[in-house]
Amino acid sequence: xxxxxxxxxxxxxxxxxxxxxxxxxxxxxxxxxxxxxxxxxxxxxxxxxxxxxxxxxxxxxxxxxxxxxxxxxxxxxxxxxxxxxxxxxxxxxxxxxxxxxxxxxxxxxxxxxxxxxxxxxxxxxxxxxxxxxxxxxxxxxxxxxxxxxxxxxxxxxxxxxxxxxxxxxxxxxxxxxxxxxxxxxxxxxxxxxxxxxxxxxxxxxxxxxxxxxxxxxxxxxxxxxxxxxxxxxxxxxxxxxxxxxxxxxxxxxxxxxxxxxxxxxxxxxxxxxxxxxxxxxxxxxxxxxxxxxxxxxxxxxxxxxxxxxxxxxxxxxxxxxxxxxxxxxxxxxxxxxxxxxxxxxxxxxxxxxxxxxxxxxxxxxxxxxxxxxxxxxxxxxxxxxxxxxxxxxxxxxxxxxxxxxxxxxxxxxxxxxxxxxxxxxxxxxxxxxx
Length: 434
Ligand code: PLP
Description:
Layout lengths: L6 E2 L9 H12 L16 H18 L5 E6 L2 H28 L4 H15 L2 E5 L2 H14 L7 E6 L33 E4 L1 E2 L4 E2 L17 E4 L16 E5 L10 E6 H5 L4 H6 L11 H6 L9 H17 L8 H19 L5 E3 L11 E6 L4 H13 L2 E2 L10 E4 L6 H19 L1
Parallel strand pairs: 1-13, 3-4, 3-5, 5-8, 8-9
Antiparallel strand pairs: 2-10, 6-7, 9-10, 11-12, 12-14
Helix pairs in contact: 1-9, 2-9, 3-4, 3-5, 10-12, 11-12
The chain binds pyridoxal-5'-phosphate.
């Protein structure tokens, strides 16, 4: 079949806009008639520098990123950031403690070291909000990294499995968030508060910035969000975050690159390696060290310029397609809502056939719609997927840990393709219902 005949609903990597895929094949072969393909040119060439700068500028425009933020493009995917966030944010926490102790102890370095060492052991906390498989994975990675410093450093603020009727990640708890500072850990802020904005595997998405995280006291909370799978699908107030990150391969490109939008003071509030080591903490591996990546304009090592060029095309397309919408992402936000509503409405029209995994509409993902057929009837689910494949509707099998069906409606999936899928959903339901 041709690309046009296929509607691809895979969860990641996602499909690419057809026009961009065609242009990319040409750029891969012979970029701007230079006789070289984009994957062959140096990441330090003027062409590469321009691609990188243009991508950052487009992203800044789309997300209205304030001046006190930096964009870093890096390797390692979303998973790499599970570690990078811990290394860099813990180092920042240590540096803040060091500076405070220097002030209070009149620069007595011996006593400063002693105090910060003690604080690391007794007061360091990382807050994780668990609403799905990816935030769980991130918290497990953090626990592994900080384990040598002591137990209970990772504070599970809330675990959505405990507020689920089925013991699954299928909701966002409204209450019972045990954020640091709290009664167990005293009046100290955590190094950061982490959450995943859209849980790709479970189909759970925060409808907006979590109200529970709005700062009410003078203690600033450094909020970190994984936006791998809903990046650029709606407006985001970047100023509420210390860092936002995501792998590019859903809404802003192909695999290989990871976006990190980070507040600049995190880059400048970092201790020396020797101080970190003295208090018993590893310094971040260079490839994950935000200040190094930022200082080298994301060119510390060889970057995949071809992949970045694709991200540039996607951001430019977003800007031109929705050029009339202001602020810039409003048009895409409406579109994302429209596509997911089409699917949820169709599913809800056949309650005896389709069971949406996430009961509460407010936290159903607009990007990854997860459902079972006839309560998880294996034969029915197989028949549905087979019929879908015959109709050119691909990538619909649910994640292996959840089963069933998952419809991923990323930005490159057009409304027409979603309508085609809804047609099959309706047809299948009628056949099964007979
Ligand atoms: N976070 C989320 C929300 C994801 O969906 C994924 C991958 O699907 C990851 C993190 C991990 O990303 P990567 O595969 O780029 O390491």
